[in-house]
Write a structure and sequence with these properties.
By secondary structure, the protein is α+β, with helices and mostly antiparallel strands. The strands form 12 sheets. Strands 18-26-25-19 form a 4-stranded antiparallel β-sheet. The protein is built from 15 helices and 32 strands.
């Protein structure tokens, strides 16, 4: 046998085993021999299985060794340092980290002055109960408390001790003192029970009544020195009872914590209904009334004093009063917050302007009536700050029902009967006052012809529904108009608050004139009106152009602040008509245009008696 024969035999045996396994796995009916590639694949799969088994066995061995080591370590008892665990309290002291001796000294230092020397004070709703050490026989076994503190966390297994140490680092533990106290519990319990049996409260409602007599007083001017009534209030009591067992439990808890003050809050079954100070005021008192002012007319209603007490002060007393307490409140007169003086101290205090206009030639009776009615219409009107005023709106439409009468006036160059004629004299007086007060003039019109009762450029013509006088109150306070008429004169006054630091000067400058022409009316000597030669049928009136301005003059220095053009007024001229008699003139026919119409016609330009000479002012102020 050669050098490698043994190997070949071994190889043959191995090949036989592989073939046997292969045939067994395939269970082939023909059982053919595997190829060399199939044999190599089978060998590789078996090798992987062996490696997997070896790895699993290694892991199990490591785990078994770790378990054995853990059991050995857990069976070892940790070393005890002989100190109380952290955060262990007794009698309010942190004993953590102390030895037994240190803890005992600390407890003696605190408790030797309490249990044997300090009274237990129990606060109750209707008094307090005091238990002295001599009565309770209070004694504390300090050593037993120290032993309990030291023993905390040391009982049980080593694992229990380790858990206790971990917990002590994050939480606190208090040793109750009660198990180590000597107390006369029977005495404590009986004392509390006796006190509670004699204490309780039944429901009673508060009462309130006035004592004394209410003084008579003038509500506008009271006598503040008279004696006043007193309001007496007796607070009610609640319905409640004290539980002796709960008080007893609180006392024992306090002893266990080295505390010697106990406050017991008795549960209230029914509270008394306490009235508010405002309710009492409404029942027994009279509220003051402030002075008021009408927002349209600015008429002031005087204040009225009240009679009562300070509501806020009484409410504070009611909020802090004890059950059954008596409260006495002195009543008195109460001054209103706003008086008439407060409202009128600055209201209409100053005369902003006043002006009177009179007709030197006098007025007709009808004109005087209209003047008086227009003055009454605007009298007392208040123009609020920033508000606009319209003369026509204030006076209203002049009607016969209101008492206005017809007056002949020149309108559009013709004499016309006007219902309510003459009221422009009142408007002109108001216009002049508005200029003096430096109010804003929103609308103003001059008369068609110059008038006699006022200077040129200072008149204000009004015609209801057509021409108006409108003003704006540009001051910071209301303005009241006061107006009155007396025969042919009218007076207007403006009242308000004059805060201006300047005065107003009114200027009216004539910048142009138009002279009237003379028109000759030729008539025959036998004219039906008996006109005479040279007779004036119509007075001539000069036409004007007038510029009205106001100058503002500084009060103290007299310096001119500004000069402002207010308006330009244009007055028409009126030609003079004179009669000239000519013998050869044709007879005068009243229907001819060249001859004045019959004076019985009120709408024509000449409505005068042909036998008289009529002046311009006679036409306007008959």
């Amino acid at each position: 046998m050669g050098k490698y024969e043994a190997d070949r035999r071994g190889s043959s045996r191995e090949q036989a085993e592989v073939d046997k396994a292969y045939h067994k796995m395939t269970d082939s009916a023909t059982r053919k021999h595997p190829t060399a590639q199939q044999i190599a694949s089978r060998r590789k799969a078996m090798k992987k299985q062996k490696i997997t088994i070896i790895v699993c066995c290694s892991i199990l061995a490591v785990l078994l060794i770790a378990l054995i080591c853990g059991l050995i370590l857990s069976s070892c008892q940790p070393e005890d340092d002989g100190k109380i665990l952290p955060h262990v309290y007794a009698a309010g002291i942190d004993l953590g980290g102390m030895t037994r001796d240190e803890a005992a000294n600390a407890l003696h230092l605190v408790t030797d002055k309490t249990f044997t020397q300090k009274d237990m004070v129990i606060g109750l709703p209707d008094g307090q109960l005091t238990l002295s050490p001599a009565q309770t026989q209070a004694r504390l076994d300090v050593e037993a408390v120290v032993e309990a503190a030291y023993s905390y966390g040391r009982g049980g297994s080593a694992q229990d001790l380790e858990t206790a140490r971990k917990n002590a680092a994050n939480t606190s533990h208090t040793i109750a003192l009660l198990p180590y106290l000597t107390l006369d519990l029977d005495y404590i319990q009986s004392s509390i029970q006796t006190f509670c049996d004699t204490f309780g409260s039944q429901l009673s409602q508060p009462t309130a009544q006035l004592e004394g007599y209410r003084p008579a007083y003038d509500p506008e001017h009271p006598d503040l020195a008279v004696e006043h009534q007193t309001l007496v209030i007796v607070m009610g009591t609640p319905d409640y009872a004290i539980s002796a067992s709960k008080v007893y439990d609180q006392v024992l808890d306090a002893y266990s914590l080295n505390q010697f003050v106990v406050t017991y809050d008795a549960p209230t079954l029914t509270e008394p209904t306490v009235p508010s100070a405002q309710e009492l005021f409404q029942k027994f008192c009279v509220s003051p009334e402030d002075a008021t002012i009408d927002s349209v007319t600015f008429e002031v209603t005087p204040e009225v004093y009240g009679y009562g007490f300070d509501v806020e002060s009484l409410q504070r007393q009611l909020d802090t009063a004890e059950y059954g307490q008596t409260i006495q409140v002195q009543l008195g007169f109460i001054m209103p917050d706003i008086t008439a003086k407060d409202l009128t101290s600055t209201l209409f205090r100053d005369t902003l302007a006043i002006h009177t206009l009179a007709n030197p030639s006098g007025n007709s009776t009808e004109r005087d009536v209209n003047l008086d009615l227009s003055a009454m219409a605007i009298d007392g009107i208040v123009i609020k700050a920033g508000e606009e005023f319209s003369f026509n709106n204030a006076m209203g439409r002049p009607t016969a029902q209101k008492g206005y009468l017809h007056v002949t006036e020149m309108r559009d160059g013709k004499l016309t009967d006007v219902l309510g004629g003459g009221v422009s004299q009142t408007a002109s007086a108001l216009y002049y006052c508005a200029l003096l007060a430096d109010l804003d003039i929103l609308e103003r019109h001059s008369n068609e012809y110059a008038v006699e009762y006022t200077r040129l450029g200072l008149d204000a013509f009004v015609d209801w529904g057509i021409r108006d006088l409108r003003l704006r109150n540009n001051t910071g306070a209301p303005i009241r108009i006061i107006a009155s008429a007396n025969g042919s004169e009218v007076t207007v006054k403006l009242l308000g608050e004059d805060d201006k630091q300047y005065t107003v000067q009114i200027n009216a400058e004539v910048v142009g004139e138009t002279a009237p022409e003379t028109i000759v009316q030729v008539v025959s000597k036998d004219n039906i009106y008996d006109y005479t030669d040279g007779q004036i049928l119509q007075e001539g009136v000069t036409g004007y152009e007038v510029q009205t301005s106001i100058d503002k003059i500084e009060e103290h220095s007299g310096r001119l602040i500004s000069s402002t053009l207010v308006d330009t007024s244009t007055y028409k001229k009126q030609d003079q008509i004179i009669v000239q008699i000519e013998d050869n003139a044709p007879p005068t026919d009243p229907t001819e245009e060249s001859v004045p119409d019959d004076p019985s016609e009120p709408t024509e330009e000449t409505q005068t008696d042909p036998t008289e000479t009529t002046s311009f002012f006679d036409i306007f102020f008959p």
